[in-house]
Amino acid sequence: DIQMTQSPSSVSASVGDRVTITCRASQGISSWLAWYQQKPGKAPKLLISAASSLESGVPSRFSGSGSGTDFTLTINSLQPEDSATYYCQQGNSFPFTFGGGTKVEI
Amino acid sequence: EVQLVESGGGLVQPGGSLRLSCAASGFTFSSYWMHWVRQAPGKGLVWVLSFNNDGSNRVYADSVKGRFTVSGDNAKNTLYVQMNSLRAEDTAVYYCSRGAKDRTMDVWGQGTTVTVSS
User: In terms of CA atoms, which chain A residue is nearest residue B65?
Assistant: First the structure.
């Protein structure tokens, strides 16, 4: 199974800051990488697919990069509504696996 | 509007069974892979199983293989998961999601809660 390791597990930042979350795969996954945002009591929401493709309706302050084993989610100019837990997910092969999550606090 | 609505969760004793449903609307269910993902209280997301558009492929996590069975009713646009021999560690919110072409999950239901306890 492919292990997905996210860091940090939590981050506290201020409005307007830039936040960077990393996700490392235990083996190469090309660009089969997604990022999700989950707020308490809610279902996850897809933010980025194929490592860097922003989903429709997602603010442009979110961006993704990387390929192979190392990936990054960047939130520029952090907003109060960005307070959430963020997960990466690999779709390279079954079993699909998620990272452990990064809680972003404002 | 594209929507997924799960139902069927509840409290069940260890060793018991439940059937979860996921009703799809706004899209043709049979044209997509569908997935179930669960989240134990206070924990992260865990993939459980996937079911492809023509029903010929079912993939299960090792933790549920042999106990969970997925099926679909194209006429009702509904996905089902029969969960047998339930264990305490199956306690979680279960989410149904639609698979996108790039192997992501682009639409999610609101989740249904399964609690396995005596």
Answer: A95
pLDDT band at residue A38 under the 50/70/90 scheme: very high
Please check the confidence at residue A106 and state whether its pLDDT lies above 90: yes
Tokens of A8: 């940090």
Judge whether residue B56 has pLDDT over 80.
no
Structure tokens at A26: 């235990």
Under an 8 A CB cutoff, do B104 and A99 touch?
A: no
**CA-atom Rg of chain B in angstroms:** 13
CA distance B57 to B117: 32
Cβ neighbours of residue B54 closer than 8 Å, sequence gap 6 or more: B30
**Is the peptide bond between A8 and the residue preceding it cis, with omega within 30 degrees of 0?**
yes
Q: State the pLDDT at residue A77.
A: 95
pLDDT band at B54 (very low <50, low <70, confident <90, very high): confident
Interface size A-B, in CB pairs within 8 Å, comes to 63
Q: Are B70 and A54 in contact (CB under 8 A)?
A: no
- List CB contacts of B73: < 8 A, sequence separation 6 or more: B80
B104 touches chain A (CB under 8 A): yes
- Contact (CB<8Å) B104/A91: yes
CA–CA distance, B11 with A44 (Å, rounded to integer): 24
**Furthest-apart CA pair in chain B: how many Å?**
41
Q: Who among A43, A49, A99 is closest to B102 (CB)?
A: A49
Cβ distance A46 to B105 less than 8 Å, yes or no, reads yes
